[in-house]
Amino acid sequence: MNPIVDHIMTAFQLFINFATIITLLYTLLKFTQKPADNMRSRLESLEKWQVEVERRLTRGDEHFTAMDEGNAVTQQALLALMDANISGNNVEELKKARAELYEYITSRRKHD
Question: CA 38 to CA 49: how far, in whole Å?
């Protein structure tokens, strides 16, 4: 064959071999990075989940605090009623408990 054609064929073979090696290296690199990519995406989803859980826990804490306050006011009013029934003349304490209950209910409506 012509030496120029041989040189061209050798150059093409070198180019093809070089491209094959680059492709194999790229594939190997992608294959070895896949576990890290999976772990990274799982970590991101867990971080999003954590933010949502913390937000819900905060809302739950606020809700339970409000319920505790309401229970305390209701229990004070109940005690005043019981004292009034026992003694028969506990009007001032009943008025005070009623005022506290009204205040609590109206303040809760403003916050909701």
Answer: 17
The model's pLDDT over 47-66, given as tens digits with 9 standing for 90+, comes to: 999 999 999 999 999 999 98
pTM for this model (two decimals):
0.49
Hey, is 90 helix, strand or coil?
Answer: coil
Round to whole Å and give the CA distance between 73 and 80: 11
Output the six-digit token pair for 37: 């990519």
Q: Is pLDDT larger for residue 23 or for residue 106? A: 23
In the numeric block, which tokens belong to residue 111?
């916050």
CB half-sphere exposure, 47, CA atoms < 13 A: 6
Number of domains in the chain: 1
Residues belonging to the chain = 112
E strands along the chain, which residues? none
Contacts of 79 (CB under 8 A, 6+ apart): 97
CA dist 22 → 11, 19, 82, 90 (Å): 16, 5, 88, 93
